[in-house]
Design brief:
- It is a single chain.
- By secondary structure, this protein is of the alpha+beta class.
- Helices cover 18% and strands 50% of the residues.
- The protein has 2 domains: 1-32; 38-158, Beta Barrel (Lipocalin).
- It has one helix spanning 2-30; strands spanning 38-48, 58-68, 71-82, 87-89, 97-105, 113-121, 126-135, 139-146, 151-158.
- The radius of gyration is 23 Å and the shape is elongated.
- The chain starts with a helix and ends with a strand.
- The relative contact order is 0.17.
Length: 162
Amino acid sequence: MLESYIWNVLATVTGGAILTFIFFLLREKCFPIPNISGVWYVENTTESSAYNPYKGMTLDYIIMFWCEGCKVSGTAEKVHEDSVNINKDFIGKDRKRSNVNGYIQKNYFSKDKVTLHLVEDGFGRVSTYSYELIVTRKGMVGTFSSMVADQKGKSTWTRKKN
């Protein structure tokens, strides 16, 4: 009787170890965390704003990320603005730097999501952007919100410069 009990315990432990290994392989090889480290080219298009001249404005950024697991960190620079007041490329000392922090939400039954917080040392004041993005095969797409004139709009992220 004791021998039968020991064999049952060994079979349960072995089965659990094998099942754990299978789940590990599935997570690491079949459903990995998306690799978003590296350079991204971002286009934000403002759809609504408390300040009418910002409606329809397009801002372009270059963003560099590095990831530690699901945690995302990086820096950004504004490289272009197209609005009713200005259509300008920002070069060298004219570029405004930003710090980016966020995380990757790994989903197994839907597309992975990335949530980011960007703090820009803008023209005259510091401004904040929040991004909710979906990871796609071609990049990331989603929405942004900004404290600058209550802006909201669409954001497109690609690995290649347009």
